[in-house]
Amino acid sequence: MRVSDQIIQQMQRQIVSGKLEPGQRLPTETELAQQFGVSRSSVREALTILESKGVLERHKSGGTFLCRFCLEKILAAIDIPRKPDSEMFEDLYEARELFEVRVAGLACSRADDLDLMKIEKTLEMMRKSLREGDSGIEADVLFHQCIAGATKNQVIAGIVRSFGNMLREMRVKTLAYPGRLKKCLEEHREIYRAIRDRDSARCCTLMKQHFDAVAKIRSAMNGGKTE
User: Fold this and answer.
1) What is the pLDDT of residues 14-36, one digit of tens each?
2) Which residue in 55, 56, 137, 149 is a FRET match for 176, CA 20 to 30 A apart?
3) Could you tell me the end-to-end alpha-carbon distance of the chain, in angstroms, rounded to an integer?
4) Which CATH number fits domain 3-76: 1.10.10.10, 1.20.1300.10, 3.30.70.2640, 1.20.120.1080?
5) pLDDT for 171-201, tens place per residue?
6) pLDDT over threshold 60, residue 81
7) The model's pTM
8) Cα 86 to Cα 58: distance, rounded to the nearest angstrom
9) What are the domain boundaries of the chain?
C-alpha cells in the first residue's frame, strides 16, 4: 500500500471514530507529516485524493477543513483496493463463489424445461470431452452460464459470463489436474439433478462443495497455498 493510501486510511479511521469531526480545521501539511511520520509530499497527495472525494475542502483564505458530510461520504464510498494481480484474482474467485452459490439456488425456482435441456446438454459435452481427451473448458463455462440464464435475470447472466471470461485460464489449469474433469462431471450432474428436482438447499450445498473442490486443487497446484 502506498504511503498516501496509509495516510488516507488513518484519517478515515479518525473521522469514523469521531477524533476528527465535520467542519474541523486540519493541522498543516507539516504538522500532519510529523504526526504520521511521513513526508509532506505524501501528505499533500493524500489530501488531494480526499479533496477529490469530497471529504475535505481547502479554503482560499487558508486552511484545510473537513466537509460537513464527510462521514457519510466515507461510509458510503466503495474504495477499490490497489492490489497485485494475484490478490485481485483471489478476490475475484471469492466473489464468484459467493455469487454463484446463490445463483444456483435461484435457478432451482425459475428454470424451465428449456433451461434444463440446456444444462443437460453441457453434461453431454463434458462427457464427450472426457472420452476424447479434450480440456472440457467449454462445457464447464457453458454449464455455469446456463444455470445463470435459468434465473431469468439478465444482470446475473452477464456477471456470470464475465466471471467465465476472466477466470478462463485458471479453469483450464484446474480441469487439467489428474482426475478433475471426471470428478467435475459428477459434480455438475448432481447440481443439475438438484435444479431439476427444485431442491434449492441441496443445490446450494452442492455448488459450494463444487467450489471447495476447486479451491483444494488450486491449493495443491500452488504447493499448499492459494495464489
Assistant:
1) 988 889 898 999 999 999 999 99
2) 149
3) 19
4) 1.10.10.10
5) 899 999 999 999 999 999 999 999 999 999 9
6) no
7) 0.69
8) 38
9) 3-76, 85-221
Amino acid at 180: R
Q: What is the 3-state secondary structure (H, E, C) of the chain?
A: CCHHHHHHHHHHHHHHHCCCCCCCECCCHHHHHHHHCCCHHHHHHHHHHHHHCCCEEECCCCCEEECCCHHHHHHHCCCCCCCCHHHHHHHHHHHHHHHHHHHHHHHHHHCCHHHHHHHHHHHHHHHHHHHHCCCCHHHHHHHHHHHHHCCCCHHHHHHHHHHHHHCHHHHHHHHCCCCHHHHHHHHHHHHHHHHHCCCHHHHHHHHHHHHHHHHHHHHHHCCCCCC
pLDDT band of 226, cuts 50, 70, 90: very low
What are the angstrom distances between the C-alpha of 200 and each of 31, 51, 105, 153, 206?
58, 47, 5, 17, 10
